[in-house]
Amino acid sequence: RNYYGGNWASFSFSGLLSWIKENQQKADITDECEDWRKLILENEEVISLTKKDKTIEHVEDFCFADQDSAEDVEEAGALPKLPVFGASGAEGVAQESEKECPRMESALPEAESREPEKAPGTEPASAVEGNDVEITSENGSSQSTALGESTPESGRAEAAPSETSAQEPKKITYSQIVREGRRFNIDLVSKLLYSRGLLIDLLIKSNVSRYAEFKNAMRILAFREGKVEQVPCSRADVFNSRQLAMVEKRMLMKFLTFCLDYEQHPDEYKDYESGTFAEFLRTRKLTPSLQHFILHSIAMVSEADCSTLEGLQATKKFLQCLGRYGNTPFLFPLYGQGEIPQCFCRLCAVFGGIYCLRHSVRCLVVDKESGRCKAIVDHFGQRISANYFIVEDSYLSESICTNVCYRQISRAVLITDQSVLNTDSEQQISILTVPPVDPGKPAVCVIELCSSTMTCMKDTYLVHLTCPSTKTAREDLEPVVQKLFTLNTEKESENEDMGKPTVLWAVYFNMRDSSGIDKNSYNGLPSNVYVCSGPDAALGNDCAVKQAETIFQEMFPTEEFCPPPPNPEDIIYDEDETAPEETGFSNSPETKPESLTEESSSGGSTALKKEDNEE
Predict the structure, then answer these.
(1) Average pLDDT score over residue span 425-445
(2) pTM as predicted
(3) Which of 11, 96, 138, 154 could make an S-S bridge to 123, C-beta 3.0–4.6 Å?
């Protein structure tokens, strides 16, 4: 691939269109070297790797915005044009995009690599509202972490006046989306970071958080009786809520207090352990609205098959994350989830790691006697030896995966013209769980991102929908899209769609979920070859962190996983060592690119520290 992160990546709009085209065509990778077999010795055998990425299926994209001469529009700052390809949902309408600038020529994703995507003088608008976040340790000590820097100018540049929420949304055309395509950072996988989750702890411990900025997800929403409404989560939210009666407020606070230390009161739930969490909620004298809020917006679990214990654990996790960085449990990385793998790549490159883009691998070379993998052969016919090999599941051929049963994730990404719930403040991240209509169907998780997350252009919203697959992504998710949004077709005149946000552009696709598969399920893999999965369907990132640590400890049982790196100022260079080159390549674990030294030492920012509050 020519981008970082695999299926965890983020794309500009034109980059996503290129990705869509690539996955709709599924072209084979051509071999650049035909005589590679001479590199294989007599006592060796090969395990061929797949040439096709089969993790993405059923890709369908639709354009609903006005097509005002979009074929003549050029994306600001883009490179030469790609061939024209049409949107599958808008026949006869040409979609033409610009090729995305290569994300990085070197192995080191520099911190400045995002700068061309920002307009001059702009910074996240959330600085005005005070919900940009600096990640700090529990004791409040500085970690030189996420910066959330803000200035008065930044607020003026991005923040929208509150009075516009009462006005009609601006009409956005397809040509505007193409022209502003570099304003978009569209994630292939939609996740949030739990403020007390494993990934946040790892970012702090490893100091990788200094390479990223975060924003609070400020609103937890619910969809009930055909309406979207905000769910009160913290103590202050509950007692300030106008949608709950005083009796309901007491009921909710009593139940949430019980969930925080439910292990100390087994008598209250042990009779319901064999039942579902939904059944347990019905025994707690909670009103139907409270049951709905707790099940779908706080615990965020399935009504049909979530046990009582699983529901209590999920509710406790939600409540424990409140108050660390805001009144909700969630953080989102500015510029998208794809920033997280790039941040780890930066730290890896600083200490000598090399990340090769546009460099495919043909096969694993296995010693017949020991059964261990000795090397790989790349598509240039180059043999690279190593002691350990970590392979992403998508590289393994069908012959290796005959006993593997994969799950699928249904994904949709929408560009819309307004929020699903308009309030005085437009610049908010929202998370909404839409319950299933039919029994046996999964709930759909909806994450709505505003322009101050640096993932979409001004006056638009980026909406991610995710659920475990039962059919194709479009079949699973389009009914939910139709409930929440207007598709800008002939329905516009119908009264039932008045007030709903309008979908300007949409893409649906299914993504393989290879998490939770035992290594023994793969046929004939050597003991020193480790398999990691792609993204899972969960909202958080705990699965990926656990998997990374497990693989690391199997290879290096006496080593610490992701230890804190030394401060750049503390690194002492040998006399014969030269300064690190601009690319960041180095075989010495003690070298560090000067650009990162300057970045980490500049440090000055306006950041929110952890506050002691009653949550």
Answers:
(1) 86
(2) 0.79
(3) 154
